[in-house]
Design brief:
single chain, six-stranded antiparallel sheet, alpha+beta
Length: 147
């Protein structure tokens, strides 16, 4: 992405933007104060109406401007572990790596090549959306400081 890790982090640190860039999340219902501190949650709705699921994503660990470790839940389907890593290549350019694996529930047992390909495509689109937000700041909810 053609931005600094700080600009990407500004989007990640705004829990209200997750439905703007995480494919499958359709609505953010609430964000705990202090997000993204460990233990804080985003309360979201995922999936198409009328089959949407109300659940939450919890911060497991955080290394500000470098890594965010999340546990999204979409029960009864299960939960995943997501690690988002930011690596500055050179000033103004950052590589973002998103790794997602099923952690618990029925989806954990459903890991197949086809499923991995679907997750890969979904996460690639999510990263494109994250880049749009970080590079263009189409969200007016967070002021991004110039670093």
């Amino acid at each position: 992405m053609a931005v600094t890790p700080e600009r990407i982090w500004a989007v990640l640190a705004d829990g209200w933007t997750y439905s703007d860039w995480v494919v499958g999340t359709t609505h953010i219902r609430d964000v705990d104060p202090g997000w993204p501190a460990p233990g804080t949650q985003i309360h979201h709705k995922a999936g198409p109406w009328p089959l949407s699921i109300h659940d939450s994503t919890t911060v497991i660990a955080v290394d500000e401007f470098r890594e965010l470790h999340l546990r999204p839940r979409v029960w009864p389907l299960g939960e995943a572990e997501v690690v988002i890593t930011l690596m500055e290549l050179d000033p103004g350019h950052t590589t973002v790596r998103l790794v997602e694996n099923f952690h618990a529930g029925p989806l954990r047992g459903a890991r197949t090549t086809i499923n991995d390909l679907l997750l890969h495509s979904r996460n690639r689109e999510s990263l494109h959306r994250l880049a749009d937000l970080a590079e263009r700041r189409i969200s007016d909810r967070v002021a991004v400081p110039d670093f």
